[in-house]
Amino acid sequence: MKVALLQGGRSLERGVSIRSGLRVTEALLDLGHEVDVLDLGPDLVGQLEKNRPDVAFIALHGTEGEDGTVQSLLELLDIPHTGPRVAACKRCMDKSLAKYILRENGLPTPDWVTYSEAAIRDFGAASTFGAAVERVGLPLVAKPCSQGSSLGVKVVTELEQIPNALITALSYDDRALLETWVSGRELAVSVLGGEALPVVEAIPTKSNSYDFEARYEIGGASFECPADLGEAETAEVERVALAAYEALGCSGFSRVDLILAEDGPQVLEINAIPGLTETSLLPQAAEAAGLDFNAMVQKILDLAMA
Fold first, then answer.
1. What is the pLDDT of residue 216?
2. Is the pLDDT of residue 11 over 90?
3. Is the pTM of this model over 0.85?
4. Cα dist. 65→5, 61, 100, 176, 275 in Å?
């Protein structure tokens, strides 16, 4: 099969994308596919039209690759692609929108308030920070609306810290969330073809949170897969994750990140195109389910073609 492997791009997660792409390319070649590696750029459409692949394997993370931009082009060109379709990508990428959808579907997610750069700059929204704290409590987490991998995330323990935390978050996006801090175990449920893979628990080794460095540096975190959960806990975490995946309209494969708090799982976000690097969680979960990396890549391709 002729596969266009899309990687790179201009997002802040370019380096992670290239690492994912390299690993997937090796697997595709091992599987006997013809691979055309394309770095996202001005000639993308021209190369796709010229070489006309049977399928596009999207190894892109962050803006443009994970927000529906590339997916809409591929669908316009009638080229099958891996991962969710346009609408689901848009929903997953916008953390605030995703949380509204989760709440509308009765799914647990931490309380939040959304601020735009325009609202703070033009409408005096800074005067509402106290009201935001009353709603979400302290400590809270400030994060960009549409970045992944914990980029721009700050934990706030005092009201006076909110302006600087929002400045950091808004340097990555023009909207940001103030979200209730939920203490608990950091879990991830990867979904492949509509089925939940074994739950992974991320245990940071160098910091108190599973941040960008912990996600992508070797030794930045340790992982348990399957996570050490009771049967009832596992069933509830998987139920919530699958319901979140379906509520946002995902297909193919995605990853749901959760916190297991004392009162049960809370959905933090849904990653439309999770990482496929050596430290990424989807490959670990697939391996625990009996799929090595090559078999997982082939399964993802088969889902795209179907």
1. 41
2. no
3. yes
4. 12, 6, 23, 20, 12
Please answer whether residues 162 and 120 qualify as being in contact, where contact means their C-beta atoms are separated by less than 8 angstroms: no
pLDDT bin (cut points 50, 70, 90) of residue 205 is: confident
Domains of the chain: 2-82 (3.40.50.20), 91-108+183-290 (3.30.470.20), 112-180 (3.30.1490.20)
pLDDT digits (tens, 9 = 90+) for 54-73: 999 999 998 888 999 999 99
Cis before 139 (ω within 30):
yes
- Answer whether the bond into residue 226 is a cis peptide, omega within 30°: yes
Reported residue count of the chain is 306
In terms of Cα–Cα distance, which of 22, 61, 23, 24 is closest to 40? 61
Q: By CB neighbour count within 10 A (0-12 exposed, 13-18 middle, 19+ buried), where does 300 fall?
A: buried
Contact 260, 227 (CB under 8 A): no
Catalytic residues: 13, 149, 216, 255, 257, 269, 271, 275
Amino acid present at 155: V
What average pLDDT does range 219-231 have in this prediction? 88
SS (H, E, C) 68-96: CHHHHHHHHCCCCECCCCHHHHHHHHCHH
Which residue in this structure is represented by tokens 């399964």? 299
253 forms beta bridges with 192
Instruction: Give the number of other CB atoms < 10 A from CB of residue 17.
Output: 27
The answer to which of 141-155, 225-239, 275-289 has the lowest mean pLDDT is: 141-155
Q: Give the bridge partners for 256, in sequence order.
A: 189, 270
Mean confidence (pLDDT) of the chain: 93
Residue 191: both structure tokens together: 């979904």
Q: What is residue 208's predicted lDDT score, i.e. its pLDDT?
A: 56
* Predicted local confidence at residue 148, as pLDDT: 65
Residue 46 bridge partners (DSSP)? none
